[in-house]
Amino acid sequence: MIEREVEREVERDREPVLLVDTRCATLRRLGDGLHRVGHTVIEADSFFAAKHSLATHHPAVIVTNVRLGAFNGLHLVHLARAVRPDLCAIVIDSTADALLQDEADRVGATYLIEPVHAPALIRIIATVLGRDAKAQGV
C-alpha cells in the first residue's frame, strides 16, 4: 500500500488531486500528466491508502478507479463528501456499468470509462473545478 505525494519543479498553483488506482502504472501515467500542468498529486494504490490521504491531506479533487478490491471508488466519494461536501469527484471504470454510472450521478461524480489519458483528464478536472482548460496548459 502506497501513499505518495510527489513534488516537481513546477509551481504549485493548481488544486491538489487525490489519484487512486490499484495499478501503479496508471497512477504514474496520469499523475505525471497532472504534475506537468502544476497540480500537486497525492497518489494512493488502495482504498485504505486513499482513506488515509483524505484524512491527512485536503484535495480539491478525487480521481479514483471504481475497482478497488473489496471496496470501490464510490465508497471513497461518499467518505470524502461526508467531510468535504464541495469536493470534486471523478470515477473511472474499466467497462460501462449503468448501475455504477447512476450511483456516480447521484453523488455528483463524473463517470468515465477507460482508457482515460492525461490530457483528457486535465480538461475534465478543469471543467469540474470551473476553470478554462486552456489555462490548465492543455
Looking at this protein, list some descriptive labels.
138 residues; alpha/beta; Rossmann fold; six-stranded mixed beta sheet; two-stranded antiparallel sheet; 39% helix; disordered C terminus
Main sheet: strands, sense, barrel? 6 strands, mixed
The CATH level-2 architecture is identified as 3-Layer(aba) Sandwich
In helices, the fraction of residues equals 25-40%
- Provide the β-strand percentage band: 15-25%
Structural class: alpha/beta
CATH topology, anyone? Rossmann fold
Radius of gyration: 14 Å
List the secondary-structure elements in sequence, H or E: EEHEHEEEHEHEH
Oligomer state equals single chain
Query: What is the spatial order of strands in the main beta sheet?
Result: 1-3-2-4-7-8
How many individual domains? Answer: 1
Task: Break the fold down into its secondary structure elements and pairings.
Blueprint lengths: L2 E4 L10 E4 L3 H13 L4 E4 L2 H10 L4 E5 L1 E2 L2 E2 H11 L4 E6 L4 H9 L3 E4 L4 H11 L10
Parallel strand pairs: 2-3, 2-4, 4-7, 7-8
Antiparallel strand pairs: 1-3, 5-6
Helix pairs in contact: 1-5, 2-3
